[in-house]
Automatic annotation (TrEMBL):
Annotated InterPro entries: SASP_SspH
NCBIfam families: SASP_H
GO cellular component: endospore-forming forespore
Compartment(s): Spore core
Record-given protein name: Small, acid-soluble spore protein H
Pfam families found in the cross-reference section: SspH
Entry superkingdom: Bacteria
Length: 59
């Protein structure tokens, strides 16, 4: 995924399905470097991880 699309998803009120390594995640924030973002798993666990945005996929 590219920076422009991550920004669009973050500013959208729609429920956009994004995956990281095949697991559905929410994008919490894009980091200033424009290459990484903080995400957390959808569901009851709110474990957050910093990931490379190139590894995020829109389903």
């Amino acid at each position: 995924m590219d920076v422009k699309r991550v920004k669009q998803i973050l500013s959208s009120s729609a429920d956009i399905n994004v995956t990281y390594n095949g697991t559905s995640v929410w994008i919490d924030q894009l980091h200033e470097d424009g290459k990484t973002a903080t995400v957390h798993l959808r569901g009851p666990l709110e474990e957050r991880s910093d990931v490379d945005i190139s590894e995020l996929e829109e389903v």
